[in-house]
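Illustration 12: Pectinesterase-like.
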Amino acid sequence: MLFEGNDNVSCEKTLYYAKCSNCSPGANLNVRGYHKINRAIAMKFTIQSFLLSIENWLLLIDIPFTIALGY
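Figure caption equivalent — predicted structure in token form:
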């Protein structure tokens, strides 16, 4: 499914769809911007990669979280 904004601008040229280790029915995407990525690349999209000192402040506010990928 492609995202279409309210201003009729197609985001198809700039969206980045990614999947990692997904082999379930319907997992075969055939859209522009689709990328099959490996675990190392997928790690760049986890909260660990863009929140510094994540363990410190998330533990303080008592929100359950997983730092890394779950597989």
